[in-house]
Structure formats: C-alpha cells, structure tokens
Amino acid sequence: MKIGIIIKREYLTRVKKRSFLILTLLAPLFFAAIMFLPAILMENSEKFDQKKVIAVRDESELFLGKFENTDFNTFIYIDKDLDEAKTLVKNGEYDGLVYIPGTKLNVPVNAEIYSVRQLPMTLVTHIRATMKNVVEHEKLMASGIDPAVVKAASTTINVQSIRMSEDAEKESFSEFEFLIGILLCTLIYFVVFLFSSQVMRGVIEEKTNRIIEVIVSSVKPFELMMGKIIGIGLVGLTQFLIWVVLTLAIAGIGSTFLPTQDVFSTGTVMSEQITETAENSDTQAMLKEVFNIIDSINFKTILWCFLLYFLGGYFLYSAIFAGIGSAVDNETDTQQFVTPISLILIIPLICSGFISNAPDSSFAVWLSMIPFTSPLAMMLRIPYGVPIWQVSVSVALLFITFIIFTWLASKVYRTGILMYGKKASWKEIFKWIKY
Amino acid sequence: MNCLEINNVCKTYGTKRVLDNISITVPQRSIYGLLGPNGAGKTTLIRILNQITMPDSGNILLNGQPLSPTDISNIGYLPEERGLYKKMKVSEQAIYLAQLKGLDAREAEKRLRHWFIKFEIQNWWDKKVEELSKGMQQKVQFIVTVIHEPKLLIFDEPFSGFDPINVNLLKNEILELRDKGATILFSTHNMASVEELCDNIMLINHGQKILEGSVYDIKQQYKSHKFEIVIRPFKEAINIPDNHTILSTERDANGEMHIMVSSTQANDLITDVIREGEIVSFKEVLPSMNDIFINLVSSSNN
C-alpha cells in the first residue's frame, strides 16, 4: 500500500526530529511540575523564611501579651518612643515594628507596621486578626455580653451538592470540574491547532519544494493528503500516549515523596489510609474532600472522550488546513484563511465561563453538537457528566463532517498543489471545488 | 509497435480549451519531442499522461492497453517544476520516491547504489538535499526519475535549469536509455536538442496540433531547395546556367568561393558547377527546427 509508505515517511521524519523528542520529554515534566509545585511550595516556603522578630509598641496598652508567638514570628513588647523604635528597626534589631497609637476611647482601630523589608502577608493577617478579636472582645464586654455566648452561637453551614445519576450518587465539586474542563478545552485547542498546522506546513513545504508533482505522478493526491494527515495524527497520538504514561510515572514517583499528593490512586483507598494515620482532624477533613473530588471525576471517560474529540477535531481541521496549504504559495499567505477558521474553533473557549456555569443549557449543548466547536465545547461539559446519546451524536456528526470536508479539501488540494504563483482567494477555492 | 498512442484528447479549464483534439503516436524505442510556445498545452498533456489530470475526452493507450493506475510503475516523470525534500537525506528520499513508484525498499537501495557509483556521487549518500548544489540536486532528480526502469520516460523541459555539463550528461543518458529499450517523450524549447535527439516531434500551439512527423520528413517538407557550394574557381568569374538562381556569392581569403544557390535539381547543379572549379563542399541547406518552429507558430498566431 502506497499510503502506508507515505504515512511511514510523514511519521518517521517528524518523530526523529530533535524538537519532537524535547517536547515529548519536557511536557510531562512540566505537567508534573504544575501538579506538585503548589504542594512543594506550601511545604517549603515557610521553612525557608527566617523567624521574624517583631517589636510591638502599644500605646493603648490593650494588646499587651495578646500577640501570640508562632513558629515564624516572635513578638517583643517595648516601651520606647516611636522614633526610637523605628531606628531600632532600621538598624536591623527587629524585623518589624507594630505601632498602635493610644486613642481617647481606648478602642484603637488602627495600627501601623514598619519594616525595612516587606513582611509576609500571613504576618499582617495574623496581627489584624488578633487585634480584631481583642477589640471585639472588649466591645462585647463593655456591652455586658459574654463573648462565650457569641462564640457558641456562631455556626458553620455545610452544603454538599450531590448529583443523581442512574448508577450512583456522587458529590460534585463545580470549581474542580470547571478547572478540569478549562484545562481539557485549552489542551484540545492547542493540540488540534498544533497538529493541523503541521499538516498545512507539510503541504506548503511540498509545494514550495516543488516535489509535489513527482509525488502525485506516483500516488493520487488524495492518498498523499490522507497519508500526511494520518501520519501526523499518529505523531500526535504517540506524543499524547507518551505524555500520559510519563506524567503517570512521574506522578507515581513524586507521590512516594509527597504521599498526600497522590492524585491518581483512587480516593477511597487513600482516604481510608488517611483516616488511620492522620492526627490533625482539620487536615484529615481537607484531604478527605480532595480525594472525594478526585473520586467524583471519571478520568477514564474523560481520557476516552479527549482521545475521540482530539482525533475528530484534528481530522476535520487538518483536512481544511491541507486544503488551505495547497491553495497558497507560502506560509504568510495562509493568514486570511486560517484566522477566520481558528476564530470558529476558539468560540467555546471564549464562552467557557458560560458553558461551565450552565453545561446543560441549550447554547452549551448546541456548541457541543456543531462539529467545528464540539471538540472544545464537549471538553468543557464532560467533567459535569454528559448523556451518552449526546456524546454519540456529537462524535458521529464530527466524523461525518470530517468525511465531507476531506472530500471537499481533496478537490481543492488536487487543483491547488499544481498552481504556482496564483494568489488564491476564497472565490478561487470554491471554483476549484467545482472542477 | 507503438509505445504510446494518444487519441483525440481534449481538455478544457473553465472556458479555456487547453487541449483540442490532440492525437499522437510514439513508436517503441524512439525519442519524441513535444514542441510549442509557453502555454501551448504541453504540460497539461504531460500531466494527463501521468494521470495527474484526467482528460475530458479521448483515450490513451500504453503498449496497446488503455492507460490505468497500475501504469504508474511503467512511467518515469521529470516535471518542469521539480524539487526534493530539503531536510531529508538524499538516499532516504530517493528510496522513498522509488517505493512510491512500486519498488521495494531493498531493490531500490541496490539500484540506487549502482547509480551513485555510475555518477560518482557515493559520498552524497548521507547528505541532506539542502547541502547539495542545484546541479547536484538535478542529478539526484534524474536518478529518481529512472530508478524504477520505466518503459516510458517523460521529461518536461528537461534541459531548463540544468548547467551545460548536466545537459550533456542528460542527453547521453537519454540516448543510452533509448538504446536499452525505453521510449522517451520530452517537451522542450531547446531546438538544438530536438535536432540532436528526436526521431519524431509534434508542434502544438493554443492547444492544437499544428505539425507532427519525423524530424527528417519535416525538414524535407519545409526545405527551400537551397544549396551551399564551396568551390575553388578555375577562372576569375564563374558561370552558372539560369535554371539555378544564385542567391549570394562570397570569396574568402583563401580564394575559395561560397555560393548560395536555389535550385530544384541538385544533380544538374553539380554538373553545372563542376566545370567552373574544384568543388570543396556541396550541401543542401535544410531549415533549422528553430526556423520552422518560429514560422509556424507566428503564422498560426495570425
């Protein structure tokens, strides 16, 4: 089969490129870094910070002994002039100075913090919270109310949203689903555009190299076009598979160092382990929630859908881009054709907020049905759960459109590849379809 | 037997008739020249033969059988617009293109090595095409065209862009391929190469055939019965009877006289001239293909 020979060449020349190797190996490291970075930063950032010594000059004398020392901050109460205290900060004796002026009412509501270097946000928050508590306490006492009563009255309301489906009830976590959706949507936009453009560049390369006529005297233009599309598609799949495997591997290795970050093992098993081991009940609750979220997302379905829509979207757009590539003489001439088409593709990403807010609204459903927008729109909806019939219809429409557009593109391609020096326009291209 | 027969082929693009009822026959083991000004329809005809474009009507027979997709391996084609993948290795690329013509990879490599030795370019094997000069690339393109040993070779403007050394090489290779049994069809503007190589030609203008035949017959057909005689005269002046028309006489420094004569009777002319002096040379002046081409094309344009 000649198409096999073409696919092989298209595939091998790209896979053997150094840039492919670099991108393939670096991207998972990048993904893993994104996954672990917050955890690593959280664990380490405060350790790296030196303990701060903060002087407190309290003229109101209301907060003496109220600022609690923490692992990171020590508070020292001083009885000096403000100017004198400032000099001490400047000389580096203290890292910062909290100055609380005395007021007539004895309920100060301002404080000033002096420092040479910027103090951590957490310290400022800590000071503010402490002062707030003290002042509120004082006010309540002044009004004759026992602060303990107020504390007892305060309540935290816990609302769980549970989505009902045929087989199970699952907790849903909209923010997380939104994030996953945006991530998938951006990723599919990126890969569809990246690999379709490669098809276009390949076609232009053959045209500008003037090798095209030798090739089409040996194979049908349609075979050449399809061979190129399939070959580059396989490059995309290879890259995708390596990414998944490598990301999993890196995540697996990483999680042995950071056990709490193992996002890929199933949530239930992990949360049980955590119940056994975790001592701090707050951490335990938080972790449990994280694993509930992960448990609520059906990664398998998402992966399959991503693959289907990547292939469908890639095939559709690469056929169109192959047609465009055949019609022009160089890459700069492609803009007038590529821009409107990429605008259509990007619509769901622009409307992502709206789609995620109402994933079952008719607008969202329509966008996920129309083949040109469905790959991106469906990625936004998938994490929220989409009825199987909608996915089936949408995928079927996508592949039917792909076949129609491949047929149209091959007609443009057939004529376009042998046209040199003629500036193509939309009108010209439609004429070629009719030949 | 005819290698190629084209019968009544027509092709129209939009409203423009590019080929109008073209018929030619190319005998086996001959070299056929396709002549015509730019835009006459040569490249379209060649693309039809390579099944890149389909004719609107008419049929084509290759070795007596209608042209079919399997004939791709029987045809070698060097297009006018020719090139190679710049970033690919010369050998890889040539093997790839040979595979597309139906050779298996191993056989292609074997033949390629043979050609590389023949052209003394073994050290190009692992080079990328972009490292080669244009003349070097042309050699590779030629090898790619003939590597699958096709029965019919089609060259579109083979000599354009080739340097004189490669033109010579190409001419010799074309003759050698013909001697080995291939049939060659090529289009060209280079009239000298037509006289040198072609057995038969067709002249085409505005999609219409205006002349076809063997180079010899055509020259006979368009000859103007002119003779160039070089003679060492016995006397100061020469006397030639009135049934021949003297067009010009010229005496050179060696005392030889160059005479241009128009005459319908070559033998009579010789007997008439032989009395006047010692004949150094006597030859009929045939019109060059270039003259015939220009005359016919300009008269058909009017």
Strand arrangement in the largest pleated sheet of chain B: 6-7-8-3-9-10
Radius of gyration of chain A: 31 Å
Summarize the largest interface: chains and residue counts: A-B, 21 and 27 residues
Terminal-residue CA separation of chain A: 28 Å
Sheet/helix structural class of chain B: alpha/beta
Fold-level CATH name of the largest domain in chain B: Rossmann fold
* Name of the CATH class of the largest domain in chain B: Alpha Beta
The shape of chain B is globular
Overall tally of domains of chain A:
2
CATH superfamily of the largest domain in chain B: P-loop containing nucleotide triphosphate hydrolases
Helix content of chain A: 55-70%
Distance between the termini of chain B: 37 Å
* E-strand count of chain B: 14
SS-based structural class of chain A? alpha/beta
Q: How many independent structural domains of chain B? A: 2
Mean pLDDT across the residues of chain B is 89
Largest sheet, strands/sense/barrel of chain A: 4 strands, mixed
Number-wise, the strands of chain A total 6
| Count of alpha/pi helices of chain A | 17
What fraction of residues of chain B sit in β-strands? Answer: 25-35%
How would you characterize the overall build of this protein?
- The complex is a heterodimer of chains A (435) and B (302).
- With 435 residues, chain A is an alpha/beta fold.
- Chain A folds into 2 domains: 2-32 and 173-434, no CATH class; 52-153, Periplasmic binding protein-like II (D-Maltodextrin-Binding Protein, domain 2), CATH 3.40.190.10.
- Chain A is built from 17 helices and 6 strands.
- Chain A has helices at 2-15, 18-48, 82-90, 121-142, 147-153, 174-209, 212-216, 221-257, 267-277, 281-296, 299-327, 335-350, 352-357, 362-367, 374-381, 388-416, 426-434, and strands at 52-58, 73-77, 96-100, 112-115, 162-164, 169-171.
- In chain A, strand 5 and strand 6 (169-171) form a beta hairpin.
- In chain A, helix 6 (174-209) packs antiparallel against helix 12, helix 6 (174-209) packs antiparallel against helix 15 (374-381) and helix 8 packs antiparallel against helix 11.
- Chain A is elongated, with a radius of gyration of 31 Å.
- The model of chain A is unreliable at 259-280 (pLDDT under 50).
- With 302 residues, chain B is α/β, with parallel strands linked by helices.
- Chain B has 2 domains: 2-220, P-loop containing nucleotide triphosphate hydrolases (Rossmann fold); 224-285, Alpha-Beta Plaits.
- Chain B is built from 9 helices and 14 strands.
- Chain B has helices at residues 42-49, 90-100, 105-118, 134-146, 164-179, 191-197, 215-221, 266-274, 289-301, and strands spanning 2-13, 16-27, 31-35, 57-62, 65-66, 75-78, 152-156, 183-187, 200-205, 208-214, 226-233, 245-251, 257-262, 277-285.
- In chain B, a hairpin with a 2-residue loop joins strand 1 (2-13) and strand 2 (16-27).
- In chain B, helix 2 (90-100) crosses helix 3 (105-118) and helix 2 packs parallel to helix 4.
- The two termini of chain B are 37 Å apart.
- In chain B, 36% of the residues are buried.
- Chain A binds chain B through residues 2, 5-6, 9, 13, 205-206, 209-211, 213-220, 418, 420, 431, and chain B through 14, 47, 50-52, 69, 72, 75, 77-79, 81-88, 96-97, 99-101, 141, 144-145.
